[in-house]
Structure formats: C-alpha cells, structure tokens
Amino acid sequence: MLSKLRGLVKQHAYQIRLAKKRGFLLFASFSDAKNRAHAYHFFGTDFANAWQQVVRFYGQWVYTHGQTPEWIRIDWARRIEATKLDDFEKWLKGVKRNYMRWGLVLGKQCKYAFTEQELNANAMLYQGVKVAHAKINQGNFNRYGRKKYKGFNFNFEPNQPVYKVDTAGVFLSKSEGPYMLFRRGRNAGRRIVKYLDEEYVTHLITTASQFLISQVQPNGRFYYGWHPCFDREIRFYNTLRHASTTYSMVEAWEVTRCEQLKAAIDRALNYVINTYVKYRDKDGQKLAYLVEQDYKEIKLGANAVLILALAKYSEVFKVDKYLPLLESLALGIQSMQNPKTGKFVHVLNYPDFSVKEAFRVIYYDGEAAFGLMRLYGLTKDARWLAIVEKAFDYFIQAQHWKIHDHWLSYCVNELTLHEEKEKYYRFGIKNVAGHLDFVANRITTFPTLLELMMAAQRMVERLRQSEKHRHLLKNLDVNAFYHALERRARYLLNGYFAPEIAMYFANPQRILGSFFIRHHSFRVRIDDVEHYLSGYVAYLKYLKNK
C-alpha cells in the first residue's frame, strides 16, 4: 500500500526550512481502523531520505500490529512559520475553537510534532464551550503527548520556539483511494471531491443512515450522542430529537431501501410511542402528547416531529395503522393554539397540562405547521389546513421570516402546494432572500441551512413555472440563490467523518460515516446527523431532477 503513494508524495512535497535546516518534512499515519492513529514526523535533507524513514516506520508498525494498516495517510509540510509560544497563544485568540488549521512542531531539536487533525481530535487547543477561540489545554496536550511520545516533556515556557506547519496530504485505504487531501483552509484534511454527484451523495446518505442504525438499541432507544475526542457518551435524552431523527431515517430509507434501516425505524417508533406518548380526554376527543419525562413537560415541537415521522412512515410504507394516533397528536397541537390569534403555546406542564412557557424557541412554530401540513397531505382533513392557515396569519404578522427558519421553509413549500396564495409565496421568498450571503459563507457547517435552501428551491421552481406568481421572483436573486445552495451542499462535506478524519479520534469505528459539529468539539449527536441527512436526501432529489 505504501508504495502506491510514493509517486504522489514525491510529486507534491518540496523542501521547507525547519530550524535552520532545509529538507522534506513528512507525516505518516497508519491505522487499523479501530484505534486512534498517530501522525509521526520524519525529516530528511532530500526526499529519498525522508521517505526511507517512513518506509522503516511502516515496517515497524506492521511488525508491532501483526497486520498491514487499513488506512494510510501521508502528509507533507508546505510551509513553516516560526514563532514563540507566547506569540502563538496570542495568535490563537483569533482562531475559532476547533478551527485550528496548522500543525505544530516543538521541543528541543523539533522532537515533537502534531498535525492539525491531532490537535483538534485530542482537544489540545480546546478550553470548553465558554471559550470561543482556540486556547492551549495543557492537560490534554500532555495527555496526548505522553501517549504518542515516550518521555514527552514540554514545559510551555512562553519564550521557547514553536513552528506552525501548513500541510497537504494523501489518503489510501485497502478498499479505496488514493485520494488527495485539501491543504490548509476550511476544507483542510479531507479528500478532494471534484463532483458532488448522485453517486457520492447516495454514499453520504447510506453511511449516515448506517450510523443511525447502529445507534438504535434493541429496545428502540437511541444512543443520544458522542464526544468523539475521548469516545464519551452524551448522557442525556430528548424525545423530540428521537422523533425527528426517526423521520430523517424514513427519508433515507426511500434512498437506500435497507432492511436493517427499516427494522431500526420500527424499533425507534415503537419505543417512543409506547414510552413517551400520553393521552388526555377533552371535550369528547382523545388528545395525544409526546412527553419529555425528565422535565415533565410537553413541547409543541415534539408533537409536531412525531407527526412528521408517522405521516412519512405511513406514506412510504403504505400503512394506515398510525392514523388514529396521528389524529390525536394533531388534536394535541390544536389544543396549544389560540383559535383567535393563531399563536401557539410552546410548552405545557405534564401531567396537569398547564402552561409552562408561552414561548421557548421559534423552531416549534415551524415544526408544528409543517407537521400538520404533512398530515393534511396524507389525509386531506381540512381541520389541519385550517390550523396552519390561522398560524400563518400570525407568522406573517410577527414577521417570522426574519428568523430564516428551515422548518418554516419546509412548511411554506408544503402549504403552497395546496394553497397558492401570494402571501405565502412572499413569506417563503423573504425567508431566504436576505440570508444568501450567510448561507454561502458561514464558517460552521450549519446543516439546517441546506434544509432551508432545499425546501425553498422546490417552491422557487414552482414559481418559475407559474404565470400567476412568477413576478414574485423579482424579490429574489435566483442566481445568487443557486450559488449559495450549491456552495452550502459542498461545504457540509467538512462535517463528514470520512476515514481520513475519523482515524485520529478515540474510536474511529464508532463515528465512521457520521456527521459532526466542529465547534462543539466534533460532537456527533443523533439530531446533528439527522439534519445533514435530511439536507442531502433533498439535495439528491434535486440532482436527479436537474
């Protein structure tokens, strides 16, 4: 495997100056795909010398592990910047946490080196969510340093020299590659994907849904999430996110038709219904609510996303067994709406159903309206459309489009399928028109932005075909809209745990093929994966219709 990479590395690597010496600085990472990989550095005055050191290390690795590596990654230094530790720490104040894009070489005679991926994957520059910028964590730095280097000793004296290293690289596995990797910048370290085509997007959907299958336990409860730097489980639960994640899994099943995915969906639905759905009789009607047991509360959005999951399941698998529950959940939402103003109450206490919070988060409004529209599309029961139209009168009055909520984008697209009223189209356009620069350029992956754009895209295309309402598109820069959509779809690849990224974390197999949130220390949570997944399912449909 290593010999396949020599030519590529030689072609792209070149001499740099490190501590007054000129030569080639190479980093070699080998992984069995089960344990955290270390990137060891080798410096040679010419390429042949540096590469020979890599070859010798490869032989040692194979002897020690009794097998050839599943994954190989070779990086090379492109640029070196010398500084002092105190100046480096000042420079870090301008770097968003977990967005460090340089490696480091330090210690006497440049004895120690850490690539950008190692620094981030071991939280070596992370001081928690209260510190927005990168900052040296001496505890994590020493912990990983001792794990990687025998006798690691770095005293963090402020005046000692350190070297920032800009790298590029190549990745190869036993089953795929080689792939060239992006150099320093927002895309750094991941494979270069020239075309985000149907095949690759299907691959993303498949691996992400396989990850979610692995997170559904035999009883139907999810493993809620992981902090992958140290393979720590997130000990928390949220029934709303349980339901919304299951909804995204049904969407993914339409793409993959995977039997294991269907089985996981069934387990997840049975668990949430049997454990958390509670009923109430009111005015001769049976109302249902999805309850958050830990907080003894009922969230408007929770009812909504369970409706989404069950309505989508009923549509895709052509069953009607959930229709009574769907009606009861919708009646639960109706009970939380002011019939005069259309405004929803967001949170009730359980079990007395008193108002806990009139407002909590804007997303609940869009979730409720979207859920009811999907139910209306399934049953054509006019009650649900009436609730949504009343709610939209309030949304328009309250100028909810200023929030640029993806759930409202979903909802207005669905609403205009059935009610082609100009006020709804105007709302949908305003919901995205002033947000395009943010969508195109936001540094975080922010996966709900792709969902926002994909839902709006379907409405925009209908407007382009509508003689009656086409004039409304003058309020939207359509070229900028599609530029932002495509750019966001590609940018989401920076949140994907491909093997060349996953290999540096504590348990690569746990997270492989999932999606993460970088600024939360690469957190992988079921709802994080859900939003990436739903966005790419919609993007795949868009590609197929282009």
Report on the structure:
- The longest helix has 20 residues.
- The protein is 48% helix and 16% strand.
- The chain has 20 helices and 16 strands.
- It has 546 residues and is an alpha+beta fold.
- α6 packs antiparallel against α20 and α9 packs antiparallel against α10.
- A hairpin with a 5-residue loop joins β14 and β15.
- It is elongated.
- The chain folds into two domains: 179 residues, no CATH class; 348 residues, Glycosyltransferase (Alpha/alpha barrel).
List descriptors.
546 residues; Glycosyltransferase; alpha+beta; 16% strand; 5-stranded antiparallel sheet; 2 domains; 48% helix; 8-stranded antiparallel sheet
Poorly predicted runs: none
Number of strands: 16
Distance between the termini: 39 Å
Helical stretch count? 20
Give the secondary structure arrangement, pairings included.
Layout: H1 3-12, E1 16-18, E2 21-31, E3 39-44, H2 47-65, E4 71-84, H3 85-92, E5 103-106, E6 112-114, H4 116-121, H5 138-148, E7 161-173, E8 179-181, H6 198-215, E9 225-227, E10 232-233, H7 239-256, H8 259-276, E11 277-282, E12 285-292, E13 297-299, H9 300-317, H10 323-334, E14 347-349, E15 355-357, H11 363-379, H12 382-397, H13 406-418, H14 422-433, H15 436-441, H16 448-464, H17 478-491, H18 499-502, H19 508-511, E16 524-525, H20 526-545
Antiparallel strand pairs: 1-2, 2-3, 2-4, 4-7, 5-6, 5-7, 7-8, 9-10, 9-16, 11-12, 12-13, 13-14, 14-15
Helix pairs in contact: 6-7, 6-8, 6-20, 7-8, 7-9, 7-20, 9-10, 9-11, 11-12, 11-13, 13-14, 13-16, 14-16, 16-17, 16-20
